[in-house]
Amino acid sequence: MNIFKGWCAVCEQNTEFHSPDEWFRDHLLCQSCGSLPRERAFFWALTRFYPEWKSARLHEGSPGPRRVSLRLQQECKRYIGSHFYPDIARGKSKNGFQSEDMEALTFKDGSIDLHCHLDVLEHVNRPNQCFKEIARTLAPAGLSIFTTPIYKDLSATERKAIYFQDGVEHLCTPEYHGNPIDDQGSLVTFHYGQNFSDLIKLWAPSLSVCRIDLGAVLDNQL
Question: What H or E segment, with its residue span, contains residue 168?
Answer without folding.
Answer: strand 167-170
